[in-house]
Amino acid sequence: MRLDLSPRARRSAVLSALSPVIAFAGAVLVGGVAVALLGVAPGAAFMTYFVTPLSEVWSLQEVALKAAPLALIATGLAFCFRANLWNIGAEGQFVVGGLAGGWIGVATQGAEGFTLWILPAMLAAGTLAGLAYAMIPAILKVRLGVSEILTSLMLVYVAELLLDYMARGPLRDPAGFNFPQSVPFDPAARLPYLMEGDTLHAGVLVALLAVVVATVVLARTLFGFEVRVVGAAPRAARFAGFSDARLTLAAFAISGAAAGLAGIVEVAGRIGQLQPTISPGYGFTAIIVAFLGRLSPPGILVAAGVIALTTIGGEAAQIDLKLPLDLTRAFQGLLLAFVLGADVLARYRIRLVPGGPRRTA
């Protein structure tokens, strides 16, 4: 006997809508068992992970600040993933964007006179740097047929090492007591805070604007239609005259630009200077966010909030309940596995078929 998957004649809209909720409930259930095995009451862990971060203003701001770069990167990745393209290197594009825009912040430190151009120039430089870095795997795929998965992933390490070198070398603060970091950015090179005395900055609005623009592009433009058709029916797209090469370059450009913009938003917002490490893994976590949000910009925004909530809650659980922070990462990966599994069950039926394993020629 073997298990076989057969496509459903008609996909249930209710099941499709409820599958993320079911997946989240399943992940919480398995996570509760893991927490109990570690000697912590699941109810207390649930309160710390999901309720406590929503009960105070400062923690709500932290959730928003962590959700913003995740939503921005994942929204760009959605264009690639919808077109069956696999940009796994958003982390590197994030780092390069932060480095390029941050370099302007360092170079203009102490500038006098008209300084209103500095922040827009930093945002533009970060966006263009992320776009250019994403073009490397895209061009290699289009021209030479090289796997974009491998090239985009390997370029992450190049970007991280480049940032580490620049922060410890050419861009290091000469008066910084040999700490590997640049000079702090001037106020003109920082994103403004939304409210005086709070930590919430304008980068959150940038992420919200990107989600709105991406929603309109995917739903209301010919390019969005092309992305959907190529992803759902590649042969039909070719018959319609859509170019695979052009779409590959465009999708990678969008995803790289979004990741680069997220990088400089993080540097000019929360961090305020260049350091050897500017990302806790946003580029990789955004892949989970994109699929958890069903590759839909509004869904991605909700998913980014959920992942950010578990991250803040995980930090609190590490302090209050002595739970390892790796448990949070394991839960996020488990959540992705449950979401993908729920999608499969929504599309296919599981059947028990007589016979041994299916053989392929």
UniProtKB/TrEMBL annotation:
Membrane topology per the entry is: Multi-pass membrane protein
Transmembrane intervals:
21-51, 63-81, 93-111, 117-136, 148-167, 200-223, 244-265, 277-293, 300-319, 331-350
For whether the record's keyword set contains Transmembrane, the answer is yes
Predominant location category: membrane
Q: Which domain of life is it from?
A: Bacteria
The record's keywords, sorted A to Z, are: Cell membrane, Membrane, Transmembrane, Transmembrane helix
Q: Does the keyword Nucleotide-binding apply?
A: no
- What InterPro entries does its record include? ABC_transp_permease
**UniProt subcellular location:** Cell membrane
What Pfam family is a match for this entry? BPD_transp_2
The record's annotation in PANTHER family points to:
ABC TRANSPORTER, PERMEASE PROTEIN, GUANOSINE ABC TRANSPORTER PERMEASE PROTEIN NUPP
The entry's protein name is Sugar ABC transporter permease
Origin species, per record, is: Methylobacterium cerastii
